Amino acid sequence: MLEILAYAFMQKALIAGIAIGTACSMLGLFLVLKRYSLFGDAISHVALSGVAIGIFLNIYPLWTALITSVAASVGITRLRQSTRIQGDALIAMLLIFGVAFAVLLISASGGFRVDLFSYLFGSITLISSEDMLTAVVVSLAIVTVVIILKDKFFYMALDERQAKISGLNTTLLNYIFMIMTSIIVIVAMRLVGILLVSSLIVLPNIAAMILGKGFRATMFISLCISLTSVVVGIITSYYLNVATSGMIVIICIGIMASIMISKHLKIIEVSK
Amino acid sequence: MKVPILSIRDLSVRYGSTTILENVSMDVEQGDMLGILGPNGAGKTTLFNSILMLQEHEGMVSIFGYSNGARKYVLPFIGYLPQRFSIDQNFPATVEDLIFTGLISIRYMKKNAHLLERNGYRWSYDPRLSNRERIDEALSMVGLEYARRKRIGMLSGGELQRALIAKILVSKPLMLILDEPFTALDQDAQIKLFNILKALNEEIGITIILAAHDLMLLMKLAKHIACIDKRIFFHGSKDECLTTDLVRLYSEHAMHIHMRDHESIGNTRRASSSTG
Which residues on chain B are in Cβ contact (under 8 Å) with A217? Predict the structure, then answer.
């Protein structure tokens, strides 16, 4: 039935997609809970600057994107601790700066080129074996760290000051978390592109939270939604001959909408 | 003699030219129930934040005999209930999840329990209990056994307050700092919380410091009362509190603070007009 699974490019896309989808949904839960939903977006837009720097200097753009994103996430964490600017305002600043700087550099390096579009919109079905391997290794590493630190991250999302009093090194944990997020954003860029990367981080978690379960159950449901969207999205986009990134996001939104409608029509029971 | 569980000397907090707290000094002995009374903006929360190392300050604060930077290691032995804890309805945490976060500090406490013992304090941690049993015990202490699997966003104000106290109690702290725990609770919830705090203090011997606006309530609950408005203008036992003319003390204090602020505003004005 699914003869397309025999294609090597499809296998690579699915493996990379599952790996990235897992890491994104697990990290994303804490971002949503910290009210940092748009952080992934901000980081990906800064990554656009990084890509532009790479194109401008003729270096492999993913490396420059990674460096600028990690630098930006460290910067934003520092600013949040040392200034009184609100988190969402900081994210907006970062996002705008990322695009503005990218546009400047891109125009200076001779205008928009085709390869830029693969960064903007993703190209999962075109990834190489090395890209797939990178995605799997990075995602595995991030998932491992999240599993080890999940209770601490959860405590910090609930109340960072209390977590600090309880003896957690909140500063260090914040840095670890933000750096992991920027790394996964860069890796996920290959899958869904800069413009849609935060969808994988945010949407499955918002959908899972509607169901009103406890922390672990929500994490698990979000993971299921994320993986379903990625797998179904990749396969249907092939048959319909449409952009994979758009398809993944639309399916995720579809799942979210059906949860909301079933909740409204009381088809599913939502825990109180 | 045992060192006081909390000792503060000349604690001051200033933001620029604004003084929030000035030369606050006090000792709290183990087993005390100290009520801190003061109007809004008197610096009660700032005082707590300073004790808990969440706020930069001048002067000395010592907990279990460990002062300033060193108190970081014994901080987890204090349970803190902040003044406002708002939570989204959708926040994916059950009461059990919330209380579980209280267990996270146990690792740090195990490592540093010997510091307490050195100064004569004992952490009543029972290593034989499982996490589940610990959570059960904390829930029964606040009477929330029925709400174990309820989401915290769905609790009433009183239930959430008790769940937060269970979360603190699960790690067996020796001292609680509660910032206006009674505010925004209805009568029934207030009575429940009142009885819980009284039992924790009298039966288990936990030292409690709590801030409140309501003198009547504090008089019934507390053993000692401290009145604060930037400075401490009264600190004594409940009986002393009854025989002291607090109103007179407060009005003198308020007058003093007002005069001084007035003077300093005058000085600033003079200074600015002379430079301008």
Answer: 92
